[in-house]
Amino acid sequence: MRMLSAFFLLLLGGAISAPTTAQADSRGESLARWINERGREVWGEPPAKCDDLTFARRVYLDIVGRTPSVSELRDFQDLGENRRDILVERLVFGEGPRAETYQRLSSENLARHWRRVLVPPGTAVAGSTMPLEAWLKNAFAERTPYDAMMRDLTAIQATNEAGSYYQLLGGLPENYVSHLSRSALGVRIECAQCHDHPFVDWKQADFWGLAAFYSNIPVGADNQPNSSVAGKITYEGKTYPAKFLWSDQPLGEKTNAPRARLATWLTSSENPQFSATAVNRIWQYLVGHGLYPDVDNLDLATPEQRQFLDQLGERFAHDGFDVHGLVAAICKSDWYQAETNAAPAGDAPFQRHLKVLSPEQVFDSLEQALLLPVGRVDQDAPRWTGERMQLVNRLSETVGATPEDYSAGIPQALMLMNGRLTNEAIDLESSRLLRAVVETPFFNDRDRLDTLFLAVLTRKPTEAERLALIKFVTDNSAEKSQQQAYGEILWALLNSPEFVLCR
Amino acid sequence: MSINDALDSFTRRDLMRIAAASLSGVSCSGWLPKLAQAAAGKKPAKSCILLWMSGGPSQIDTLDPKPGHANGGPTKAISTAVPGIELSENLPMLAKQMKHIALVRSMKTREGDHGRATQLMMTGYRPMGGNIEYPVLGSLVAERLKPAAAQLPGFVAISPFRPGNLGAGFLGPRFAPLMVSGASNNPNTRADLTVENLDPAGIERTELAQRKFLLETLRTGMPAETGAARTHAAVYDQALRMVETRGEGAFDLDQEPTELRDAYGRNRFGQGCLLARRLVERNVPFVEVTLDVAADATWDSHLNNFRTVKTMCETLDPAWSTLLTDLQQRGLLDSTLVVWMGEFGRTPRINPNSGRDHFPDAWSVALSGGGIQGGSVIGSTTPDGMAVKDRPVRAADLLATVFEAIGVPATAENYMGDRPIPIVDGGQPIEELLG
């Protein structure tokens, strides 16, 4: 405990100097400038920038998947004038003193997010999503260009390639192309599986024409493919030839390696649907809503609605489908850094809303804020005892359709209110954070409150909060009950909307 | 008058009378309507209890006995309170309630796999591999019938077993079931049904008030007017109300007389049926109680069917029949539809392991209450049980009947975005059963 106290003194008192590593582009600089300018043409002047702590909370959550620790916040403040850009670079590209940790965390976080894109919550899956996530993590860790990654997913030769994504979706061509067209091209064609689509122009020939590329992959338990060769598929007695979407020309029967051709067509830098869908999804992930909000139905956007999107997609393709560069550029832009609206601002052309933490972000932020043990050797580390899985599973039951939908229900709220993790966090005997805060010598009530707020909500209390909460503490005369009062305050911090939302 | 006041108003004499009641207990005391009146104060809202027989019970050894035919096996038929209608000998207590029960002996579906058949019977839609997540019956009903200012969720699922992807679907988490499970796996405490994390450890009412105050204080630091923060506040307020009132006391089964708890059966399903009644009294529109395992037996009787089904029925029969009498004596049966079904039936032919396998071609379900015409039988099967003889009923027809019985038009539609999704996939209600 003494070590922890010393740790807190250090991070509240001392300044740590850090080397700075700013480089010219390839760090998303010029793309960020382009986004700023293009945004001004479309939306006018950007809203005021959020404050530093809010910014830090955003980028830590968005890139490494958890809130920043108090000591990371201290380091950030010391980075000097250009600190926001430097922080983005450290987190995105894994640079600076914590490079290894950030590289690992950011590829895990990107992989988790992309796994949710490929397998949205509620999808019926056959087996675990772990192999897919591991495959994605590897791709992001190696900075595989986005088109190459999606090409591998498209051109599979067996069901267990590319993280077994094909198997995971049930091992059926129709399931695979439903998800592939949605995730990679931003179009939902699966309604055309059984009948021509009543609202948009998708026909059965489109759906089954795409499914035909996968017709020779062994299916299900009996391993019988629909067809012995890729390129045609039979559904309800009718045979459909393979063809690309938005094309009337079926591929010739003699085409070699049709799936490789599909992969080339789908991920081509000339395919505006592909690059636009990618940047739209990443924009949605970072800013909360897509440049065109209905990210799965891009074909419903008007040319005007998707102009910005298409141009950003072109630049993304031109820069070699570099996901890290794109993420850095968006995070450096004025639009990402805009203040969150306090109230719905009517028809303001650009607004930033609250975002909801993902289930893993909730746990990993709890772990960080509460100073929980993380090492595999520590038998009590909730990360490894199954508590993380339990919390993530419970929260995963109700993940919203976009980052702006809070859709948790009563069981999720009860878990955070009364669950074991929370009980231990607010208990003086078991809570590392609480003991560090109440047992640190020289701390007055103000320091204690500030530390709790920074650790959990990444901000300091407002003056009104400070008054009310210090009164709440000092209303208890006994020292013990004053300490317990901090436990109650911590309970409220963990259960406040601010903890599970990102402002 | 709140539920708690109503419970306080039970006098010692009431409890003595209960204690003095005969062993058939629940059928004999005058105190029951008192709570019903207090709870509702007016005509109670419509609700539905689904007794979900996960695994697929044998129709021949429960609702559609075939004595005298080789496929009937050793199971005998017994007469019921309604002349001319027979049930299997495994359900002697239920037989006495026959005048409240409508049997449908002509279920005809097309899914013989547990997962797919469960999806069909729970949602009314066959699994298609598309991306529409169809909501289960409980979510559909909760969405229609949930009173605006309810303290409890609109759909409670007691000891549920379901494939992971079945839930509120496109209706969203507001209509997802509140899961109630046993507090432990200790067989002696399995009947101890609770909502996980409902009880804050070591917290008194005054401390709860403190927490509310602190939470209010912190909410002011957030842009509270926008969507996510507002939803968060609403969910937390409801969760806090549930914690404060301990779910309006619904889960405190200790408040029930010992006799009545015994009558339902001291097992998870029996106590779950009792809890279902308590939830319906508190205006929860849909409660699902699952019976999948009892004393190491399951409905999935591929082996030793006759002993297995008998064991299951020893749990089922007292719980189901006590639920019907209990609801009736509280004046709640007319407003509460009780549905008994599994995902399919079992093969009439007995396999070499004395078992019966999955069989969707001709099987049975039962409906009671909610204005359903009791003491009736819809459809029949051939003497060997292998086929529906007349009046085939599909999954969608059954669900259409359920909706109509609780006052939801079977022609209603939900919307997934702009796209209309019929509440029932083209089913026709069984008109003969609807009042």
TrEMBL record, chain A:
Residues 1-24 form the signal peptide. InterPro entries: DUF1549 (IPR011444), DUF1553 (IPR022655). The keyword Signal applies. Residues 34-217 form the DUF1549 domain. This is DUF1553 domain-containing protein. Residues 259-347 form the DUF1553 domain. The keyword Flavoprotein does not apply. It comes from Bremerella cremea. PANTHER family: CYCLOINULO-OLIGOSACCHARIDE FRUCTANOTRANSFERASE-RELATED, F-BOX DOMAIN-CONTAINING PROTEIN. Keywords: Signal. Pfam families: PSCyt2 (PF07583), PSD1 (PF07587).
TrEMBL record, chain B:
It comes from the Bacteria. Transmembrane segments: none annotated. SUPFAM superfamilies: Alkaline phosphatase-like. It holds the Pfam family DUF1501. InterPro entries: Alkaline_phosphatase_core_sf, DUF1501, TAT_signal. This is DUF1501 domain-containing protein.
